[in-house]
Every structure is written in C-alpha cells, then in structure tokens.
Amino acid sequence: MVASRPGALVAYGKRLKGALVKSMREAKQYTIWAMPDERYEATMLDLADLVLDPARSGTFLTEFLPFVANVARLGAANTLVQTILKLTLPGVPDIYQGTELWDLSLVDPDNRRPVDYDLRSSLLNETEVALSTDRVQAMQRYMHDWRDGRFKLAAMATLLRLRRSLPALFENGDYDPLTTSDDTCAFVRRQGGDALLVAVRRFPTRHAADRDRTLLELPPDLSDCAWQDVLTGSTFGPELELSRLHDCLPCCVLLREKEVG
C-alpha cells in the first residue's frame, strides 16, 4: 500500500522535515535559527528520509501502519468527545480554521496551508440534509465512516446552532458536575428555565459490563424530566441509563424535552 503511493510519502516527508527543522532550532540544544548547524540538521533529515522510504524501511512501515490505523480509530471517538466538551463547557470555544474536519497539520508553516472551504461547504450541505431526514442513522453512518471527518462536522454544526439558539445558557449558565461512574463525565448547564445535560465517556472505546444498568444521578428538580439528544434526536427519561445514552455515540447532549423545538 505504501509503495503504491510514493507521491504521498514524498509530500508528507517535506512537511515532516519542515517541522523537524523548526523543532530542532527552537529547542536550542544543537542548532538555532541565528546559527544553524547544517550538518546536525542534515543527519536528522536523512533519518526522516530513511523512515519514509519503502525500499529501505519497508519492514518498519509494514509493522507501524497497522498500529497507526488502530490509534486513528481510537482517536476518532476521543475527537468527538473533546469536540462536544469544547462546545458545551463554560467559556468560548476556540475553533481553528479548517478543523471542522480532520486536521493533521504539524507546526507552522504546515498549519498555514490553504483550507478547502469548498469541500467543507459541500459536506456541510450534505450533512444538514441527512441530519434533517434521520439524525440517528446519519450520525451512526458518520461514526462508522470516521475517516472522512463528517462526524465532527455534523456535531460542530449542531452544537453551534444550539449555542446560537440559547445564548444566555452558554454565556451565563450555571455549571453543575454530576456524580457518576469513573467511565463517564457528566454535567448540567442551567439558566432560567433552560437546562442542558451533557454526558460523555472518558474512555469511549472501552466496554465495561457493569455499565449496562448504571443510572445517571440527577439533581432532584431534574429527576422527573424527559430529555432529547440534540445530536441524534433520541428521547430519554426520566431514568437515564448510561448504556442507552451512549448506544449510538460515546456522548450525548440532552435538552429537557419541553425546550426542544
């Protein structure tokens, strides 16, 4: 597979070596911007060329790439969890340009490459149609096809729209952490009559047997509420089983049902 994509490896090698030069010089151990040690740097850059050359390093690439694929799969679930937390916790979310999809950029200047806004606009339109038709099916499909990053784009668009519809909640709402299992992070945001409940799995790819019937403990005044997940459209309550909350995704963002609309 690697040998059939020499152009991709060459392009990646150029990006990698740019990042290595920056890291070496800013570490100021053996080379610096003002007085670069070109011989030292060349040795490090030769190592990068060696690692990425299938003819000289094929065994390493053959063994390493499956490991990378597995890490990427695990990272997709963590990416969704972190995106949900960034957009629901107190504070203003920092969204860097182009990160609506996967962004695997290295340090500058690699992270200053042009953003393909046409692609993002096209995918956003597609996801909006799919979500409006069947949210559960769409989000399940996006998570299954995580490599294209649509799961992240769909979640961000949904939550940014939610933030726009409930500005007071996100600007001034209370933050109340909930007591739950070690496997779950959960909290409630409240402002006036608005209430938002967020529950995410801390280890989203683990499957603990004792989670199946664990109930999320809510404040007394919210214990009899019905909820709707803005990500999937699924309804819950008043008893919230963690396994059911995370049946589709490793996270949920719930509004009291009377507020959904």
Count every helix, treating DSSP H or I runs of 4 or more residues as helices: 8
Q: How many β-strand stretches? A: 6
User: What is the level-2 CATH architecture name of the largest domain?
Assistant: Sandwich
CATH names the topology of the largest domain as Immunoglobulin-like
How are the strands of the largest sheet arranged?
1-2-3-6-4-5
Gross morphology:
elongated
Strand content: 5-15%
Indicate the percent of residues in helices: 40-55%
Order of helices and strands: HHHHHHHEEEEEHE
The N- and C-terminal alpha carbons lie at a distance of: 48 Å
CATH class of the largest domain: Mainly Beta
Report the C-alpha radius of gyration, rounded.
23 Å
Mean pLDDT: 90
How many distinct domains? 3
Q: Low-confidence stretches at least 5 residues in length (pLDDT < 50)?
A: none
The largest β sheet comes out as: 6 strands, antiparallel
- The H-level CATH homologous superfamily of the largest domain, spelled out, is Golgi alpha-mannosidase II
Structural class designation: alpha+beta
Notes on the protein architecture:
- With 261 residues, this protein is an alpha+beta fold.
- It folds into 3 domains: 6-81; 87-165, no CATH class; 169-259, Immunoglobulin-like (Sandwich).
- 48% of the residues lie in helices and 12% in strands.
- The protein has a 6-stranded antiparallel sheet with strand order 1-2-3-6-4-5.
- It is elongated, with a radius of gyration of 23 Å.
